[in-house]
Structures are given as structure tokens and as C-alpha cells.
Fold this sequence. Notes:
This protein is of the alpha+beta class. Helices cover 29% and strands 26% of the residues.
Amino acid sequence: MSGVGEAAGRLDWISRPAGPPLRGALAVPGDKSVSHRALMLGALAEGESHIRGFLEGEDTRATAAVFAQLGVSIQTPAPGERLVHGVGLHGLRGARGPLDCGNAGTGMRLLTGLLAGQAFDSTLVGDESLSRRPMRRVTEPLVAMGARIDTREGLPPLHIHGGRRLHGIRYELPVASAQVKSALLLAGLYAEGETEILEPHPTRDYTERMLAAFGWPIEFGPGRASLTGGHALRATDVQVPADFSSAAFFLVAASLVPGSELLLRAVGLNPRRTGLLQALKLMGADIEVLNARQSGGEPVADLRVRHAPLHGIELPGALVPDMIDEFPALFIAAAAARGRTVIRGAAELRVKESDRIASMAAGLRALGVSVEETPDGALVTGGTLGPGTVEGHGDHRVAMSFAVAGLVAAGEIRIEDCRNVATSFPGFLELANGCGFALAEA
Ligand code: S3P
């Protein structure tokens, strides 16, 4: 099986210690979560939706290609823009072949919910990493709604049977997951009656906000969302904010390199995404939120980060779900901080694009940092990072985090297997070098 994000050849990076401090004003690419959802709701809406700030990453392009296979016309008027010609809730056509989600867990899980309510069968496939990620968390509640989905023992490929009558359910999520919540809400559009989702901890609410913006009646608040089937989506223009998860690497980098000051422009600050901001501040970081405003229904601001000495913390458990994608970057901050950082309650990291506890612990140990792994976290003792070779595990955020580590290491770091960085952050290398990184393809 070949996935969109799968490496055509291997790509390694060398990250060298910083010369002068990091300086500049940067616009990181558009938010991945928002870009996926804008395509999905735009496709199911009646009329044309213009998406601006769209992430030109492999994950979101894979989702666009899936909708093209399902009969939706999507134009690219300019890079970072998409014009989606919506076909209406019942206008998708069955595809001939499998639908390739590449590396994207968000793409696959949300599409599973969306496709469970269609009249036709679909097969979803993904790359090697996605083919190892657990799907029962979405298929089980969808089956409880009346769907029929075949899996390979809970893993992709997923074969989703069409022509099923779905009915709403009340579902308490066993783990906090915006992907599962969103999949069930998308299936709920096609279900008879009410679909109600309760979360153990509130997660990002982009699907709820965007459904409301597209005119679908929905009730939601922290930890809860409910809607009924049988309405229609009206096309709406979407302005995608810059992705906080991409900004995160620069927040850590500028905090660590003496003398640095970076301005990150128009970053999405949805409170369910900004746990790292709080964690870094607890560690002593100097980050200012400037020009806070609303853009496309989302809070957005410019972030000014200046170097500051960091110290270790016991990470408050309540922050974990709000920074679930930022742990690779936090591991680097912890490794370069003074003292010990304790991470607990983050077992979900083990089922991301790689097992991020294991990937980060192994990489940091290879650089001479003392890391004790636990089932749901790690104890990182900060100090000096040595030179060395680390494995990127085909995980975009692991690779970019070690690129940041290279800035403050005692010598160069070779990062193996970095090709998947393009899934979420095309142009990372150029943007990073533009503000003072010394990062090169090996
Ligand atoms: C996402 C939800 C999170 C996150 C992922 C994007 C989303 O996954 O890690 O990168 O867009 O809904 P989980 O729902 O598995 O926590």
C-alpha cells in the first residue's frame, strides 16, 4: 500500500548549533485541523466556499484529493487558497478505488464518520504510520449508531459500508479526542435524532464552531456537543489561522537561544490548543500575546517570544489535552531547562504519528540527556545536549523538535527520516533558516 506521505526516498537533516541569536517576524502555515474541516464542510455544503490560509501540507492535500475522488470540484486560485464547489449533504459520489489519507489521522478518522452515512461503500487507506494507528475508537461508536465498518483488527484499511440508516446516540468518550468527537458529529449529520457527545476533558471545538458557521444548528460548550440530523450546510468562506502547533517550535527555539527575539504573526489561539504557552510560561519563558483579535470566528494574536532561562516543572495534568501535539517541542524545552520536568497523564502520545514518548526519550538519550520513560509520560532531567544521531521515526513533529534541539546542542545533530515534515509544515527548513537556524539536508 502506498500512502501520499510515504517517503519516496529517505531524507535526513543536520541541525547545527545557532550562530547569532534568532531574529525575525514569521508567518507559519495554516492550521491543519481547521484546514481539514473547512474542506469537509465546504464539500458537503450547498454553494461555493472560499478557504484562505489553507495549509498546503501533505495531510490536507490528501483530504482534498479524497473529495476530488468523491466528485467534489476543488480549485486552487492561489497557493494557500481553495475554492470548494459544495455538492450538498447527499451529493457525494462513490469512488472507484481506495481513498488514500496519507499520514493523516485527522483525515481518516473524520472521513470515517462522514462516509458512514453515505449511500455508497468506501475504503480508506493510509501510509505505514497511519496503518498502525487505532481506529476502534471511532468505529465502535459509529457501529453503535448503525454503521458497518470492516477493519484489519481495529487498524486501517477501513471498509465503510454504504446505505446504512444511522441513528443518534449519547456517547461518553473514554479518552479526550477531538477526532473521535468530530467523526461522530459528522455521522450525526446523517443520523435520525440527536447525537450527543460528552468528553472527559474539553478538546478543540473547531468542528462545532465551523458547523455553526455553516448554518447547522448545534449546541456546544466545554466538554459537550449535540446536534440532530436532517438540516443543510450553507457554503461559507473560511479564514484559517496560523497553526499554533507549528508556531510551537519557534516558541521553544527562541526561548532557548540567548539573545533571540521572534514575532509569530496571526497565530490561532483557540484555548484548547495553547497549553504549551502556559507550560512554557511556568518554565520561565518570556512570551507576549500582542494584538489579540478574532479572525474567522477564532481567537488570533501575534506572539513575541524572547530568550529567557527555563527551569523544569511538574506539568499540570489539566494542560495535557490542550497541548497534545506540542509534547515533542516540550521535551526539548525540558531537556535544555535547569532541573527536572515531570510529565504524566499523556498516554495518548503513544498512539500519535509515532509513539512520541518513546521517540523523544530515545532521541534525547542519544544526545546524553537523562530521560526516564513511564507508561503515560516521562521524567526529563535538563542539562546539556550533546551532539549525536537521532531517529525522526517518520514523525513530522519529532523531526522538527530535534531540529530545535540542534540549536543548543554542543555539536551537530543528525536527524534521520524527516520527509514527513511536509505533512504539516511545508517550507519549515527555509523558514527556520531564515530566522537563524543552521539546518540542512544531509
Ligand atoms: C486533531 C485532534 C488531536 C490531535 C491531532 C489533530 C483534530 O488528535 O492530536 O493532531 O484535528 O481533531 P486526537 O483526537 O487523537 O487527540
